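Lab channel / #folding
Pinned by the channel admin:
"Please post every new chain as: sequence first, then the structure tokens as a reply. Keep commentary short and put observations after the output so the thread stays searchable."

First post following the new format, from NK:
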Amino acid sequence: MNPLLLLFMLLPVAFLSGWWTARRLGARHSGARVDELSSSYFRGLNYLLNEQPDKAIEEFLKLAEANRDTVETHLALGNLFRRRGEVERAIRVHQHLIARPNLNDDFKTMALLELGEDYMRAGLLDRAETLFADLVAMNAQAPSALRHLIAICQHERDWHKAILYARRLEETSGEVQALQIAHFYCELAERAQAHGATQEAGEYLRQAFAAFPGFVRAHMLHGRFAAASAEYTDAIVAYEQALDADIDYVPEILPALLDTYARAQQMERAEQVLGRIVTRYEGVSPVLALARIYARRDGQRRAVDFLGTQLRQRPSVRGLVQLMDTAIEGGGDSEASLRLLRDLTAALLEGQALYRCTQCGFGARAHHWQCPSCKSWSSLRPVHGATGA
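Reply from TO:
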């Protein structure tokens, strides 16, 4: 929720609390105190409506100081300070709340959770982790604390801890964490493989499949590891399983798969598989790969005819570039014109996003398993259409 909106909703609570206190005491000076609260409230409201948030905050701070018993207002102010980048002020507000001797357990837990978020925003991840771990140990706000702990572990690339906290979150809240856990195991597998621990890497992949059966990333890693060991048959099977698991990853899988087909001298199988993919995948990547096979085996004319037919069905700038390249290689009177057209078309592709996050819309030219913007896993998908992959 927008912190200004939350603060706006909580201010009447603070105001009414002060009014009720004055009514119970029945003292003359208390009535004056209510008038002061009312004046601060309406001044702050006026600033808020006139889009002057800084002046509004100052009035609301006066209101919060005048009525220290209204914990909700202080929580909302601390949250607002953090979102505005004033982390030190947010930390002070939440620390003062926690230090109150008569603060009930629920409010203390909320203040601790907010303080942990302040620490994260300030980059004090060790303090935040300790605080959230204590909340989990007390079983207080466990799901929220666990989510923050997972985020910290991902930032520090501590995948073992991330898996433990993700499993705990699944047990505590019922939220399915299988995909995230599988990604964490894949991260461990890549790290182990990079250090030459092949058996350990294989075990992590088995754990990834156990967490999320048929996981496309695990199949791709299996293929890569097998190909690195010259186990080309196993690599081909793994890459083909990756295609069956998620057809959207064709642009990522095809280059390695085609290289493996070539090394295993199984180009006939490559042609058959590409033919099947073309009927399932909307993008142009398998069409281009199949056209290259036709060009090498049957000549440029066959490749040009195939590309022309396919591009009428699925228009693509990338397909057009390859069509022109194929025609240029075949020679002819129109070679110079085709070269110019090809260069202009290629220039249009520069800077175009090839992948887009389905969660936040972030665009990228290279694939990422975790979105650099919103940190979602497996959310970057190929962009189809004229400039897509």
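NK: The beta strands are 355-357, 363-364, 380-382.
TO: also worth noting, The mean pLDDT is 81.
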